[in-house]
């Protein structure tokens, strides 16, 4: 991202005098700058654009032992299969539902956290809280999910053993599909909100303290300060991150979802990513799973464009 | 370009992995071409060249792990093989929970190891693609392969006529059977159950009458789990058999039928399991257990009363581990309980896993591998792969053998337990094992032998099953599990059966039956 913005900035400064004084000389003057761009440019071409050629297998009946050239072309058959799959509706619903939860419950969590931390005046307390809530970010999903199992399992889980010894009924946290969505969002918040708060804290660090002082002089309470100073300072960061998040709306953290899936909660837990995994990786239908990937990316693209338009319509700076 | 950045990121995120494999696929395609060119030029060429062992070879082997030590190239057996065959063995074993995934990823990347284990579905899927070396032309040069792997017929199993694409990985057919806590039975004054109703009563007593005497209701009757791709149950085969369900596929009136279509039997089974679940007799976590969890729970926690037991493991790990938790623990074999109509069956394996050699690798490597495989099955190799190297892994003490620490640390018997071994009931019996133990293990196998419950479609092929079977079976299982857990009424099984048939099951049944009729001729 930042690389792209710099490039634009550079291009503008380099080209504005050029417009008047003519092409070649200015172009040569720009050479060191173009050289600096080169590695980033090559990175995107080699690792992002060229591999997109692999998308052709979405239109083939791809066989790894025949390769790209040898595999037969099937046109849009894979897309027909996807859209006529009886599970398509369920997959779309689950994916959008979980994304929605992420967007409306998980996304605000770090903002809230950053605002709260910003209000803490004792710096030792703020720093130690910050350190502790970063920590889970460094645990892998395997560990987080296993901790969850140890705590929440019905037969031997700590929480259920406690409930049982207190005379309550055991609760099927992991195998009752009603708990799945709450569990998913809760795990996300527990693991990532501390880490995601960093960027908002950084934005808040840049707020001019005089704004708060002025607000106090005008008689603003704590709440009013948050409302009129802190949140406006975060606004552009929030919008940009929100747009970026929308682009990944169908990416739900494949590993996480897969690990907490089980045959009983599949009706609410099966999303495009895990569907691709089961069909593509376990059953070797590479073409079909690529098709699903293309479909997902297309949706992500549309959402990004829409969100960006929306942001601009509201007078905010978009991502491009 | 900037305008397209977010777009490209979004687009590529999803595709990165799949497309990333592209380049290597390309290579794979080329090597297929060159491979088949070689084959047509010299059909009997692979491995027929005399290998003088002069060149040091790196050989990759991949197989399924069931826990235990991992391979080390410092181990005595690795060094012995290095000296004897001039090879550097990279022997990798991966958990059965991830094996299929790993192999399919390697397939997509066109990077199969030099030799590896494949399970039935993958073997059939790749068999005719020219990826496995055909051993038929050279099989006679390696006599042990025919002699100790069940003969020509066993080698031919699951292969097209005249081709041998892999060596069978031997499994004892009736390898596991129920074991039960004898000390708990005695404490509660109960007898060994013989029918499924008695089985239930005993299991319920284990759950409710505090057999371990700690004053807490923390024990349960039996556990279960699902097979790794979640298409079937694991560890409760005798219960399924008692209710008349077939082991995947059975023969009825000369035709193959799937257990997915046995509506009445399924309902009986689900009713039994649902009751067990509700009353705390069955492990409430059975649906989220990993494949081997029930056995681990039995031996390390001491809270489960009845478990599916592998007799070999029984004397080597279950007894010693359980003694640590409860010194009085005693496990005895429980024969399969009789169902309402007198049916009985024990968990029964089909020998459908194959050890294959990669067709794309150098002929020198293929020949070296075959030399090694031939050696592993010889008398000397059989002793080596089961017991390790004398002097390091075990030693002779008078007229007896003694196991040394290095054996367990190095997992010196991995070749035999995980890759290739003779068709022999004593696959996991060692030189130093106490003759009574050996006799006991034999007795367990002998006791289960009459209750064989074989899969009638083992080794048969159905293209639809290979392509969609897993998804179809998983859906069916989801309903069955929900019925057992009481989330759905028992009547929903009708719908699950109908859906299974409609969405591909009928086609699969037809294909299996065609293959079955063809194989009967």
From TrEMBL, chain A:
The keyword Transport applies. Residues 92-307 form the ABC transmembrane type-1 domain. One of its GO terms (biological process) is transmembrane transport. It comes from the Bacteria. The chain crosses the membrane at residues 33-59, 96-117, 138-155, 194-214, 226-244, 286-307. InterPro entries: MetI-like (IPR000515), MetI-like_sf (IPR035906). Keywords: Membrane, Transmembrane, Transmembrane helix, Transport. Its main location: membrane. Residues 1-21 are annotated as: Disordered. Coiled coil: none annotated. GO terms for cellular component: plasma membrane. Belongs to the binding-protein-dependent transport system permease family. PANTHER family: POLYGALACTURONAN_RHAMNOGALACTURONAN TRANSPORT SYSTEM PERMEASE PROTEIN YTEP (PTHR43496:SF1), PROTEIN LPLB (PTHR43496). This is Sugar ABC transporter permease. It comes from Cohnella zeiphila.
From TrEMBL, chain B:
It comes from the Bacteria. Residues 29-39 have a biased composition (Polar residues). InterPro entries: Bact_solute-bd_prot1. Residues 29-49 are annotated as: Disordered. Keywords: Signal. PROSITE patterns: PROKAR_LIPOPROTEIN (PS51257). Residues 1-19 form the signal peptide. The keyword Signal applies. PANTHER family: ARABINOSE-BINDING PROTEIN-RELATED, POLYGALACTURONAN_RHAMNOGALACTURONAN-BINDING PROTEIN YTCQ. This is Extracellular solute-binding protein.
